[in-house]
Amino acid sequence: MTAYAQRGHEELQKIKDRLEEEHAAIKARGLALNMARGKPSKAQLDLSMPLLSAVTSLEECAAANGTDCRNYGVVDGLPEAKKLMAVLLDDEPDNVIVLGNASLNAMYDAMARCWMFGTLDSAPWCELDSVKWICPSPGYDRHFAVTEEFGIQMIPVPMTAEGPDMDEVERIVASDVSVKGIWCVPKYANPTGATYSDKTVRRLAAMECAAEDFRIFWDNAYGVHHLFDEEAEQDRLLDIAAACREAGTPDRPFKFASTSKITFPGAGISAMASSPANLAEAKRRMSAQTIGHDKLNQLRHVRFLRDAEGIAAHMSKHAAILRPKFELVDAKLQEGLAEVGGCSWSTPRGGYFVSFDAPDGCAKRIVALAKEAGVTLTRAGATYPYGLDPRDSNIRIAPSLPPIEELEEALDAFVVCVKLAYAEKLLG
Amino acid sequence: MTAYAQRGHEELQKIKDRLEEEHAAIKARGLALNMARGKPSKAQLDLSMPLLSAVTSLEECAAANGTDCRNYGVVDGLPEAKKLMAVLLDDEPDNVIVLGNASLNAMYDAMARCWMFGTLDSAPWCELDSVKWICPSPGYDRHFAVTEEFGIQMIPVPMTAEGPDMDEVERIVASDVSVKGIWCVPKYANPTGATYSDKTVRRLAAMECAAEDFRIFWDNAYGVHHLFDEEAEQDRLLDIAAACREAGTPDRPFKFASTSKITFPGAGISAMASSPANLAEAKRRMSAQTIGHDKLNQLRHVRFLRDAEGIAAHMSKHAAILRPKFELVDAKLQEGLAEVGGCSWSTPRGGYFVSFDAPDGCAKRIVALAKEAGVTLTRAGATYPYGLDPRDSNIRIAPSLPPIEELEEALDAFVVCVKLAYAEKLLG
């Protein structure tokens, strides 16, 4: 087969006509499929049902140190919960505080504290004329929504296979004191699936920042979310905290993780790890905000997940459900688009997304066509700050939620939409 | 018996000598008793154990509308949780959003939103030269800690039996545009136990405020926390939202409540009620902060507490445990201090505290003496902004946590400490 770009006008017109018929036929089927959000499927949620019965008796309400977890207190988390979350944060329990039901909230709150009060004696960011933020793109739309909410000016920096373009990052942070931080999803990134290389991590730790209170918001959302059990098939991530300690920038990173995509999204626990100075400040400020987070839910997670081995065993069950879906995405895209040309996509070894790059100028049209065909995709542009994909190319595919038969239908429809949009584009 | 103030110097010296011996004897016993925080007792916590088994099966994870509560979403709370929390907020479910595990966090976040972004198009409070807040005193120390954290200047206003001194409140809000709000615990107030009169509520709703974005933070923490089952023995509170609608100030109140002292502190659910405009703004801003709160815990509470009747029946069991403790406090204080004179205390019909007014200049000394005797009390001054009780008189007694035998010992020790401090004071 010849790539679309090499076809003649007439031939392409015929292809387009046929695709329009196919698209109309799909529309007529009245599908209601969703590949928009990174939600676990029902089968994945079912894996964690024992969690709900893990704390029901009086004895089960007691922490290891005897604390009655039904009552007030323990603002920074139970010791055993710190130990558990340290596994996800790749850190020591002493460097961890356990927080509420979602890491997004933890990140927003950490940002809000810097905004309102500054950090480690720096000026409150709300008092500055301008605050800017580095946003590796494509990236996570909810990160961008947080910085946008604060009126922080977002600077997109291209994502590479090794993480953000570090030449660009170093250049920006070195010269501009108003650049206060960077969003990072360092492992199985949302949406590209890339894991930061050791070199990238070390450069982030060591780079010269004009702003003394520059902060790396290290959202390790997919730290244990491998698609493969064999270690050789799993990505490895260097710990940013260790790298920063080595580089003499120990207060630079705020690390975040949660059990949202391990147990139950919205009913999990989250945690933050950072330097002793940062943690002491966070605890002091948090103690005006809360008497403590949900310790019974901390206990449920400790009892159910236990430790690093327990987490790995549990994540292997998730992988068994997710892996065929990711394989299906790649197979369907290969089958439908490889010879059409102009498209590329990621084949991640973990995480929740496939990052799809359509021919330039086609992403919005593809998402619109898919919507007409009953397939909901993440909004085109969502993976860029302000929703502005300069090439109108990137689409985040989230294959986790639909059952595999539905995913297959959705991908078939998606392929038709991509081809149709591309043909339209080439025909001008 | 003659009141201490009427005694001669020599006689009082003898009394003091004897009290010092009594105090030393108590010290020697090495007690470790606590009347400091408004924590439910173990017996109260035991009442809610069925909550922990209320959501364990797959069917139980579904909301009434079919939502799988194990997955992401529903930023403002399940419909049935809104209905439940509307009972505590004395409002309609449509005016309610259900939040995280604690109303303190909800209040802090509401304050932070005003601080960072303003409210309903007002200027962000962080951009103003000065922000002030009315703090009815004695009041709740954690409220004062929130306003202090933001650097908001706190203005104490005396609490009366009908709520804050409204002449004073009206005078302050009318003339000073930097006065942005007031803390209210309107029912069974912390610590005085007073419930705002209808007249107070109507004046709060109708008063002319120089600041257009003046907000009443209405912390109805003890709305259903009666000590008596008979309606005639229960305080009634006029709804501030209804009063504000009538007065043409519908956006003035933010109402808060939680299940912290109904089920499990720290593992409960909280909620906020306000006007449609305020709720729309809060939801919009919150959607940058979170994807949703813990819906499984919302379901647990709905299943366990059910409705207004279920809540009332459950609170009656709390009352049966708490009432004898409050009766003991009053009996012990009457017995030990009535004839000594100089002291007064509240006899509330609900809530968690007895507000004790020692002779002026004695509160700090009493708390210190009690500490020596092994009885932890709330820090003297804690019930005033900045910890400054101008008369050094008020002590908050929290009788809920200790078992009744321990409470009895603690009160006996407390009475000795009060008498000793008073005798010292009179002897100069």
Provide an overview of this structure.
The structure is a homodimer. Chain A has 13 helices and 13 strands. By secondary structure, the first copy, chain A, is of the alpha/beta class. Chain A starts with 8 loop residues before the first helix and ends with a helix. In chain A, the strands form 3 sheets. Chain A has an 8-stranded mixed β-sheet with strand order 2-9-8-7-6-3-4-5, sandwiched between helices. In chain A, strands 10-11-13 form a 3-stranded antiparallel β-sheet, covered by helices on one side. At the A-B interface, helix 2, helix 4, helix 5 and helix 10 of A face helix 2, helix 4, helix 5 and helix 10 of B.
Unreliable runs of chain A? none
| Sheet with the most strands: spatial strand order of chain A | 2-9-8-7-6-3-4-5
Beta percentage of chain A is 5-15%
Largest inter-chain interface? A-B, 57 and 58 residues
User: How is the biggest beta sheet of chain A arranged?
Assistant: 8 strands, mixed
Average pLDDT of chain A, rounded to a whole number, is 97
Compute the number of strand runs of chain A: 13
Radius of gyration based on Cα positions of chain A: 23 Å
- What gap, in angstroms, lies between the N and C termini of chain A? 22 Å
Structural class of chain A: alpha/beta
Oligomeric nature of the chains: homodimer
Give, in order, the helices and strands of chain A.
Answer: HEHHEHEHEEHEHEHEEHHHEEHEEH
Kindly state the percentage of residues in helix of chain A. Answer: 40-55%
| Shape call of chain A | globular
Q: Please, how many helices of chain A?
A: 13
